[in-house]
Automatic annotation (TrEMBL):
It comes from the Bacteria. Ca(2+) binds at E193, D346, D349, P477. InterPro entries: Ntn_hydrolases_N, Pen/GL7ACA/AHL_acylase, Penicillin_amidase_A-knob, Penicillin_amidase_dom1, Penicillin_amidase_N_B-knob, S45. It holds the Pfam family Penicil_amidase. Residues 783-816 are annotated as: Disordered. Its EC number is 3.5.1.-. Binds 1 Ca(2+) ion per dimer. One of its GO terms (molecular function) is hydrolase activity, acting on carbon-nitrogen (but not peptide) bonds, in linear amides. It comes from Rhodanobacter sp. IGA1.0. The keyword Oxidoreductase does not apply. It is an enzyme of class 3 (hydrolase). This is Penicillin acylase family protein. Keywords: Calcium, Hydrolase, Metal-binding, Zymogen. Belongs to the peptidase S45 family.
Length: 816
């Protein structure tokens, strides 16, 4: 290197380093500047009195004020400071407006959701709300926008995206409710019933009934009988023997995936009466199973304000709020504790749209012909021109599909009606007992849920929460139907007196886990939108019956129960199938599963292998039926949220030759081949079968929505640790990658000091916040975290903007 070059480097290098340091410091300043304010005093417009905002070591927020409306403002302020980006994603997701923020990657989601025109729906819902409810939303909106404006720098995610956050609107809170409708109602697509219609167009009806039958072996309803044993179709109904064998393919494997009990949005809740708790108060447990992300969907919240109906005249509400709304979703108010699970009733129906053969813009309705409304929806896409989506709307809902014969289908969905949105959930904060809570439930504007309530007097109760249970007439709700006939379709909403309801059962125990809860007329009213198999509910029921008394810790133990009761019979089947095998790989498989620990623990090899065997058997049994439907309908997949366990278990034990795939000489050969598939697929991985622990497959995978867009070394700093986790489907401890219990709540109202609230992901979405990931390790490791906040680490006070003094006003008028 020449002397001149060395001189240039000596001059340039310090300058370059200085520039890099300056860029780093500017970047750090901007990044750090979007952290929430934790201490001090801020002035706020419209408050009636000062509001204090205290945070403990976990970031649990205690908001104390003189009235609930001031509390709503402060809650909005805090939500915006800690979670605005997550709130923005929820409103955009339901409105079909994500692409404007993140670009073409979200366009498919926007196209699906914009068909529902949910922004127009919630605008109508807001317009219809009572003045008091509007005011509550308006004050929450004001708090959100004040909190956003009070950040020194806009939230860091917008810096990364090169975007500006848009102000919050009052109706955006209803869009957050709409996002929950989408999450809990199959993304507003109702594909399950479309796939059922395709099956019935190809296969005999009695065969479809058998393949989709519920399993009485695993049901655990709160009331009513078990389902009947599935009836095997005779050879005269359907016979596979003359047909060609089914060719195995990855496409067919994907088609059958929904039959294998994939993770579903749902929950567990259960309650025990005061006679079983030792302190006279009833006790509630609730864990809501959802997709998990950073930050968590819920926000640890305590609200304190004067209330004449509360113990000591001071309302003290503890639980989790949903950022984007002013409500505490589940929790305890000192008199009652409440929690939810998804009901899986039938809240969507397909309607056959019979177009006028002479004018395709008209369709048949009971009173003649109506015009199809056409909307050109402009979907903004960051970095690209707008995408125009043409939405054809009917009085029943938007046209979104085709029947098996090609007839257009409109989707009637309760979330598409303004009726389904209100703030009545907030009234649970003031509800004094179980009876009053169950009376309130039919008026709540939310996705219909199983509501369990426990009160401080020892009572427990269950009912459906949600004001939109449709009254059906003249249709089969599981198939596309013609609503153009007078008196057919939805004929209004069920009155409160028709809601099923259970109070204080004789044994003092109640439970729900997305399973069928009732039968008879009540089941006909609620419908079947894809009830869970029931194994999880049954295990919870049996856990509850195994104990004579309970503490909050006992309820958490049930929530974390990862015993594989459901797979035990499959372990026995595998052992029996391989008893005479001389194949070395199959002998090893039998040996590794012979000692049955029966738990979905992270180090369980036996659990993973038996589970894989069940999946392989189920695919092989169902493949010939799925293949025949897929030959006619290329988009067919097995109806989701509909376990095929009853059909599969019946077939492999009854072994009817007419329903065996011709590729196998007998049913034993099918079972052996399924075991061989396990040894081939898992045995070829490093370490062989003996190294295939459940934790290797079942990892937390809880990520920030933007981490995938960053280099891996950087993205992991905004995700939670990707550690192995115990649990699975079909047991109380539900866990899968990126999915599981979004909280564990265990509480007896009036005894909150002994209560538990675990939560993944932490309170804050900011990696520099002391509350980023706070409490996550307790959740991941099953350690109880107190519901009540600890000592305050930080205190922020919001004070009303001082009103100008009369003297100052007079001086101002004089100078004018």
């Amino acid at each position: 290197m020449t002397t001149r070059r060395r001189r240039i480097l000596r001059i340039a290098l310090p300058s370059l380093l200085a520039l890099l340091l300056a860029a780093f410091l500017v970047g750090w300043y901007l990044f750090a500047g979007s952290r929430a304010r934790l201490d001090g005093t801020r002035q706020a417009t419209g408050l009636s009195a000062a509001v204090s905002i205290r945070r403990d070591a976990l970031g649990t927020v205690t908001i104390e004020g003189k009235n609930r409306t001031d509390i709503s403002y402060a809650l909005g302020y805090v939500h915006a400071q800690e979670r605005f980006f997550a709130m923005d994603l929820m409103r955009r997701m339901s409105a079909g407006e994500l692409s404007a923020l993140v670009g073409p990657a979200a366009l498919k989601v926007d196209l699906n959701h914009r068909r529902h025109r949910l922004r127009a729906v919630v605008e109508a819902a807001y317009a219809q709300m009572a003045p008091a409810a509007k005011h509550e939303l308006d004050r929450y909106r004001d708090g959100v926008n004040a909190g956003l404006a009070d950040l020194r720098v806009r939230p860091w995610e917008y810096l990364l995206l090169g975007s500006q956050p848009q102000p919050w609107r009052s109706e955006d809170s209803a869009l957050v409710i709409a996002a929950m409708y989408l999450d809990l109602n199959s993304d507003g697509r109702n594909e399950r019933e479309l796939r059922m219609a395709q099956m019935r167009a190809v296969l005999p009806g009695s065969l479809v009934d058998f393949l989709l039958a519920p399993d009485p072996d695993w049901e655990a309803p709160l009331s009513g009988r078990l389902s009947r044993t599935p009836v095997l179709p005779a050879a005269s109904v359907f016979d596979l023997r003359p047909l060609a064998p089914t060719a195995a393919s990855t496409a067919l494997t994907a088609t059958l995936a929904p039959a294998l009990d994939a993770p579903r949005p749902g929950s567990n809740n259960f309650a025990v009466a005061g006679t079983l708790t030792g302190n006279g108060a009833a006790m509630l447990a609730n864990d809501m199973h959802l997709g998990l992300r950073v930050p968590n969907i819920w926000f640890r919240t305590r609200l304190r304000y004067p209330d004449a109906g509360a113990p000591g005249g001071q309302r003290d509400v503890n639980g989790v709020s949903l950022p984007g709304t002013p409500a505490v979703i589940v929790g305890s108010n000192g008199q009652i504790a409440w929690g939810f699970t998804n009901s899986y009733g039938d809240w969507q129906d397909w309607v056959r749209v019979l177009r006028d053969p002479h004018d395709a813009s008209r369709y048949k309705v009971p009173d003649g012909w109506a015009s199809i409304e056409t909307h050109d929806e402009h979907i903004r896409v960051k970095g690209r021109p707008d995408t125009i989506l043409k939405v054809e709307d009917t009085r029943w809902g938007p046209i979104m599909g085709q029947d098996a014969d090609g007839t257009p289908l409109a989707l009637a969905w309760i979330a598409g009606r303004p009726h389904g949105y209100n703030l009545d959930l907030m009234q649970l904060e003031h509800t004094p007992d179980v009876a009053a809570a169950l009376d309130l439930a039919p008026h709540l504007g939310m996705p219909p849920q199983n509501l369990l309530v426990a009160d401080s007097h020892g009572n427990i109760g269950w009912t459906l929460a949600g004001n939109s249970i449709p009254l059906r007439a003249g249709i089969d709700p599981l198939l596309p139907s013609d609503w153009s006939k007078p008196g057919s379709g939805w004929q209004g909403w069920a009155a409160a007196e028709r809601y099923p309801r259970i109070e204080n059962p004789a044994d003092g125990r109640l439970w729900t886990a997305n399973n069928r809860t009732v039968d008879g007329d009540a089941l006909a009213l609620l419908g079947n939108g894809g009830h869970d198999l029931g194994a999880r509910a049954q295990q919870i029921r049996d856990d509850l019956r195994a104990r004579p008394s309970f503490t909050p810790g006992n309820l958490l133990d049930i929530q974390l129960d990862n015993r594989a009761v459901f797979l035990t019979r499959w372990q026995r089947l595998l052992q029996h199938t391989l008893a005479g095998s001389t194949d070395p790989a199959l002998q090893q498989l039998r040996q590794l599963t012979a000692t049955w620990r029966g738990r979905a623990a992270v180090d369980s090899v036996d659990y993973r292998l038996v589970r894989a065997f069940r999946n392989q058997v189920s695919e092989a049994v169902l493949a010939p039926f799925a293949a025949r439907v897929k030959q006619r309908y290329a988009d067919f997949s097995w109806p989701g949220e509909n376990s095929a366990e009853a059909a599969v278990w019946t077939l492999i034990h009854a072994r009817p030759p007419q329903l065996l795939d011709p590729r196998y000489p007998d049913w034993h050969a099918l079972l052996v081949d399924a075991a061989k598939q396990v040894t081939t697929e898992l045995g070829r991985q490093p370490g062989g079968l003996a190294a295939r622990s459940w934790g290797e497959r079942n990892r937390a995978d809880i990520r920030h929505p933007l981490s995938a867009a960053l280099p891996r070394w950087l993205g992991r700093h905004i995700d939670m640790p990707d550690q192995p986790i115990p649990g699975d489907n079909n047991m109380p401890h539900v866990a899968a990658p990126g999915f599981g219990a979004s909280e564990h709540l265990d509480v007896a109202p009036g005894h909150e000091a002994e209560a538990i609230l675990n939560m993944p992901g932490g309170q804050s979405d900011h990696p520099l916040s002391p509350y980023f990931g706070a409490g996550h390790a307790d959740w991941a490791n099953g350690r109880p975290t107190p519901l009540l906040p600890g000592a305050a680490s930080h205190t922020l006070t919001l004070r009303p903007v001082p009103e100008p003094s009369p003297t100052a006003d007079a001086r101002g008028a004089a100078t004018d």
